[in-house]
Write a structure and sequence with these properties.
Oligomer: single chain
Strand content: 15-25%
Number of helices: 4
Low-confidence stretches: none
Largest sheet: 5 strands, antiparallel
Number of strands: 8
Order of helices and strands: EEEHEEHHEEHE
Strand order of the largest sheet: 1-2-5-4-3
Shape: elongated
Distance between the termini: 42 Å
Structural class: alpha+beta
Mean pLDDT: 84
Length: about 190
């Protein structure tokens, strides 16, 4: 098995392309060993010293190293590659049953709107919210009502100012760039 690696704009994140399906549809991020328990692959990657995060895309995965661990990529890249190869050789499923992704699928014009929403979230909203130790994730979009449903994560979850963040910041941004969005609701 040959696994390609690519640098990313973030020097603490490296992209691994195994040449096989990783998640297929959707994406998943694991920020801790506890979260990684849904996936045998993610869990094995967190067993490697210096690994601080794992992200699964359709046909790639990224691994985030902990810069405070004092390890450079040359020290942890080989164990990561070995863990990925061992996982694919085992024939196990990428997710345990309880970790299965149930992401909605969208078609046609709605699919394009959802792509625009996700792009705005990823490029403009999430980086700003991350500065405060939180995250906002896409749940789903109802084209009939124009309602965008979002999850508040991390420090944003349960924060008294989270509704203000949604209304004044995120909702106004979405309405400006994606006129189909009429309102935003937080999913608890």
């Amino acid at each position: 098995m040959f696994i390609q690696t690519e640098a990313t704009p973030n020097p603490d994140v490296l992209k691994f392309i195994p040449g096989r399906e990783v998640l297929g549809k959707g994406s998943l991020e694991f920020r801790s060993e506890t979260e990684a328990e849904k996936s045998p692959l993610a869990l094995s990657l967190f067993q490697i010293d210096g690994v601080a995060g794992v992200y699964f895309g359709s046909d790639f995965l990224t691994v985030k190293r902990d810069p405070e661990a004092g390890l450079i990529w040359a020290q942890i890249k080989a164990p990561i590659l070995a863990a990925i190869m061992d996982f694919y050789a085992s024939g196990r499923a990428i997710l345990n049953e309880e970790g299965a992704v149930n992401e909605r699928t969208y078609e046609g014009e709605v699919a394009q709107i959802v792509l625009e929403i996700k792009d705005l979230l990823d490029t403009r909203v999430r980086p700003a919210v991350a500065q405060d130790g939180g995250d906002i994730e896409f749940e789903h979009f109802d084209i009939e009502s124009g309602t965008l449903y979002l999850h508040m994560r991390g420090a944003c979850s349960g924060c008294p100012s989270s509704s203000a963040t949604l209304r004044q910041g995120v909702e106004s941004l979405m309405k400006h760039y994606v006129p189909e969005v009429k309102t935003i609701e937080q999913v608890l």
